[in-house]
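dumping this here before i forget
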Amino acid sequence: MDTKRLTSIAGDVAIGIFVPDYVRAIYSALSDSQSDVKAAESKGIPTLEEEARKQQILMEFQAHQARVAQELAIAERISVSSEVEIEEYYDISGKGHAGAKAEKEAVSFGVGGEGRRVTKRIIRFSGWNTSELSEGEAQPDIQLNSPASDGPAG
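structure:
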């Protein structure tokens, strides 16, 4: 066996041991999407636009899956915590306007609006509920901060 092949095998083993599955899945998905984009580039603009729409749909689906996975992880941690404190802040605001303008021979109407949603969630976990943990499994306290988001209301 040559050195290059041995190094490749050792690298694959190291990645399997030290890199979490979700990181490998993300890397694989990004690599696959890059390959799809490169293939679509050579086939022209319509194919590239179709690939971009497909990638957008996939990203929205994966973002939804990530939110579900995050909530499941939080629920699991809540189930093994001796104390949980959750603070949630919501600020939903919006404004709108309507107008009309009349001139000699023309009448125009206009309507506009904008909305904003800001949320922040802080979850503090204290201790571990030992009845939910196996023996000898001690864990530190953890605090999760969900970043504030600023996007369209809805």
